[in-house]
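Tutorial, part two.
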Amino acid sequence: MDLVSMETGLLHDVVEDTSVTVEQVRKEFGDDRFVDVSFADLQTDSVKTVAESYEKLGLEFTDAARAKVQEWADGHKPGQRGTHTYELADFGLTEGQVREAFTDYLATYDASA
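Running the prediction step on this input gives:
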């Protein structure tokens, strides 16, 4: 495993396993060291999305990396493992409540859908 992969994994664990937020990490390390990826883009064209992320980070997207991403994408097609259907009402929520709670997130990450 290369150094970048190890660093990425550690930062992921910090955010997931502590009270430190993504915003705090981004502020500490610099926003230019992060790439925001749309889940829809990742599902639609995984290789292109990851290649663009590498480019934005100034990293080389090798043929070996491309092959690994393609292998992952081939095994993770949308709906391949079934679908999940949830309604906000199942959890006692309305669309307005969710949009209000996530206003900043929706604006920051263009997740208005």
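The mean pLDDT is 87. In part three we will examine how such features are distributed along the chain.
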